[in-house]
């Protein structure tokens, strides 16, 4: 079973929130609201996309590369944990 299938409900909930944010941007543009407000909506949507991307990348690293919690080699475990942290930080 794929790890994305295991976390399917949680991931789909995130995607649905992003969809709602995209619809809010569409409504804002149709209503011709100020550009500052539209930019704020887009920024929140970008943050949500980055959060989803970070979660998917972290799961991929843990399931297909190396899981720091299960890696017997302390150096590899440390490297994997650092990579996960860099991904999270970069995508904030």
UniProtKB/TrEMBL annotation:
Instruction: Name the InterPro entries for this protein.
Output: Metal_Tscrpt_repr, Metal_Tscrpt_repr_sf
> By its UniProt entry, which CDD domains does this protein fall under?
RcnR-FrmR-like_DUF156
Biological process terms from the Gene Ontology for this record are: negative regulation of DNA-templated transcription
The GO terms this record gives for MF are: DNA binding; metal ion binding
Q: Please report which protein family the annotation says this sequence is part of.
A: Belongs to the FrmR/RcnR family.
What name does UniProt use for this protein? Transcriptional regulator
């Amino acid at each position: 079973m794929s790890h994305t299938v295991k976390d399917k409900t949680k991931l789909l909930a995130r995607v649905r929130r992003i969809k709602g944010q995209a619809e809010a941007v569409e409504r804002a543009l149709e209503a011709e609201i100020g550009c500052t407000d539209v930019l704020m909506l887009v920024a929140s949507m970008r943050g949500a996309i980055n959060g989803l991307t970070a979660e998917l990348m972290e799961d991929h690293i843990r399931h297909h590369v190396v899981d720091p919690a299960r890696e017997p080699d302390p150096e590899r475990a440390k490297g994997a944990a650092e990579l996960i942290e860099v991904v999270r930080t970069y995508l904030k």
